[in-house]
Amino acid sequence: MRIAVASSDGKVVNQHFGKAGRFLIYDVQGDTITYRETRENAPACGGGGEGEGHDEDALARAIALISDCEAVICARIGMGAYDELLGHGILPFEARDLIEPAIRTYLNYKRAVERVDERGKR
């Protein structure tokens, strides 16, 4: 499984999805988390000043940039981007932690959801 992480320093999940200048890409196999690469991104959100808002083309480019990922872990995400990511099969997950513990939290969340889904199918 491949996961994108929004981080400015390569240590902590600390970027809003729409303001992320890069995504760190990790592969997960079993309990092993491996850093693969950094992908540079043009942020979709402006700073909120006049003329700075949401850039739908930049959002589409960010989604395409991480389209091979199952999830993206970020400090925050707006509902529009959240819905767009879900529509492209990428699960947005908010966390504010060191990167590896944040990935492990996501994996635990995913396993818990899968267990609940299995119980509901019985």
Please state roughly what percent of the residues sit in beta strands, choosing from under 5%, 5-15%, 15-25%, 25-35%, 35-45% or over 45%. Answer: 15-25%
The strands making up the biggest β-sheet line up spatially as 3-2-1-4-5
Low-confidence stretches: none
| Outline | globular
Kindly report the CATH topology. Nucleotidyltransferase, domain 5
Helix content: 25-40%
Span between termini: 27 Å
Biggest β-sheet description: 5 strands, mixed
Mean pLDDT: 92
The helix/strand series, from N terminus to C terminus, equals EEEHEHEH
Q: Tally the helices: what do you get?
A: 3
Structural Rg: 15 Å
Could you characterize what this model shows?
The protein has 122 residues and is α/β, with parallel strands linked by helices. The chain has a single domain, classed as Dinitrogenase iron-molybdenum cofactor biosynthesis domain (Nucleotidyltransferase, domain 5, 2-Layer Sandwich), CATH 3.30.420.130. It is built from three helices and five strands, in the order E-E-E-H-E-H-E-H. The protein has a five-stranded mixed β-sheet. Helix 2 links the parallel strand 4 and strand 5. The protein starts with a strand and ends with a helix.
